[in-house]
UniProtKB/TrEMBL annotation:
<keyword id="KW-0732">Signal</keyword>
<protein>
    <recommendedName>
        <fullName>Beta/gamma crystallin 'Greek key' domain-containing protein</fullName>
    </recommendedName>
</protein>
<feature type="signal peptide">
    <location>
        <begin position="1"/>
        <end position="19"/>
    </location>
</feature>
């Protein structure tokens, strides 16, 4: 079963009161308990800077093209749940890619694959699937 990813923006959800804090551990535990997979990405190394979460929600499209403000800026990724993901340099999941099977990827610190530094600030699309 393949699925695409939808961006979850807590600020855009409108359910937070201005100045409220979010317990990310509680959100993570809730998603895990519902068997939801997601991909946490940040524009800084070691999960710093601006970050976004892509939540699997049983979409039928396999490839997700990042919005222009998120394309070519990602430097760290953290996969959670049972899905496997690949990040691609080009739109429509084409070109050079890096599999995010080891849960975390952060250039250059957490990266077990010496070929993937070329993915730093070069990701334009993401594909995740179960299996």
């Amino acid at each position: 079963m393949r699925f695409s990813l939808a961006t979850l923006s807590l600020a855009a959800a409108g359910s937070l009161v201005s100045g409220a804090t979010v317990d990310t551990r509680a959100v993570e535990a809730d998603l895990t308990s519902r068997s939801v997979s997601w991909l946490h990405v940040c524009d800084g190394t070691n999960f710093t800077g601006l970050c976004w979460d892509y939540i699997s929600d049983l979409f039928e499209n396999g490839c997700y093209n990042l919005p222009w403000e998120q394309a070519d800026v990602i430097s760290s990724m953290d996969r959670r749940g049972g899905a496997r993901c690949s990040a691609y340099q080009n739109e429509h999941c084409t070109g050079y890619y890096h599999s995010v099977d080891n849960q975390k990827w952060s250039w250059p610190y957490l990266d077990p694959n010496p070929a993937s530094p070329q993915m730093n600030n070069a990701i334009s699309s993401i594909n995740c699937w179960f299996g």
